[in-house]
Structure formats: C-alpha cells, structure tokens
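Task card 7
Instruction: Convert sequence to structure tokens.
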Amino acid sequence: MNNAASGPKTESFHDIIRGDKPVLVDFYADWCGPCKMLAPTLKQLAERTGDKLRIIKVDVDKSRWASGTYQIQSVPTMILFHKGKIVWRQSGVLPLQKLEAMVRPVIG
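Output:
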C-alpha cells in the first residue's frame, strides 16, 4: 500500500551506518568544551571529503542509548562506520590532518 500522505521516511541511525557510504559519527554533548573545538574541524573535513563521507552528530545526553550501545565514556568520541562495521574509533579532539588521514583509506 502506498501512503504518499505520510511524506518522506526519516532514516534511522542504524540505516545510516549500514549504508554504502562511510559515516563518521561525532558523539558529543552541548556542555563539552572540546566538542565545541572539534566542530569547525569536522566542518572542514566535510568540505574536503565532499559526498564521499557522511558526518553526523549524536548528542549523548539526548540519545542515551548511544553511550550504552557504543560504550561512550568520554566526549567527544568519533567512530567511523563502513557498511555497519566500526573501522576506527577515537576519543578527544584531533587536528584536521589526522582526521583526514584516518578516513582517506576508507573513502578512497
């Protein structure tokens, strides 16, 4: 049955990380100073990688399941997923060059 009135379906977190495109997830909190420092770096990374990499942010205070499921013990924590598998994981703020070096092998 086609239910056109419902509009576009939103993607779930699991759908996003299981897709063909690599996904860098930034687990953060609004109160976290280092998380705020990382935000411009992630924006630059997005500009450099274009549509080869998807970057999403997950607020650990609003999505408590994240800290349990992925054992997030400090923020920021970044996890790079490719086809549902964790390829790389790092806590703390990293410079753009190091982040780019970590994602390049996955995005080609």
